[in-house]
Amino acid sequence: MTSPLPELEPVAAYALWSASYPAHAHNPVMMAEERAMLALIPEVLRGRHVLDAGCGSGRYLMHALRRGASRVTGVDLSPAMLARARAALGEHPEHARVALREGDLAAMPVPGAIADLTVCALTIGHLEALQPALAELRRATRPGGRILCSDVHPIGHALGWQRDFRAGGQRYAVRHTRHLYSHWHAACAALGLAIERVEEPMLDPADIPAGAQFDPMALELPVALVFQLRRIA
Hints:
Rossmann fold; alpha/beta; globular; 7-stranded mixed sheet; 3-stranded mixed sheet
């Protein structure tokens, strides 16, 4: 069995990872997660304000702009990743409709009920407590609005998979907390969030580079957990 990699706290990890982190899905897990998320995001977002909580390098901000969102706001705890997002979005003429803000997912620097659609992709597992993060996503979303959340599937965590990356010739992992479906169900019930859909995307073998080393079980199990939630009131 492979020895676990040294785990870094998210801000320290992304300060290192940001230099090589592109504004698109760049590994098979992200590709599987993104297919499931994009299938749930409306094709036409004209007139909508989209909030990306934990926006990273800006990949979902750009998807929202491509689908016609009138306004997009990205929040991330990592200054280095926000710089990557700013650079990526600066290449697009729609960047004038973008606001990027540094802040914690559990205390975002945005007004309440700002978003028609809130996206939180592969970020919530960086927080140890699920319910406070979901409460903040709910606060930022208008009543009746949707929240789309994805996370690394807890099955992978149980099998010892880590969210790893390479920087400076070394491999590291980002600290990650496993949130089970039962945790999501309980938190949503307590907060007045309706769970409308749950997806468990699996890897597409076509996305796996030739010669890649990975756990063969990854082809037999879901790699992400994706929720479509609605703020009831």
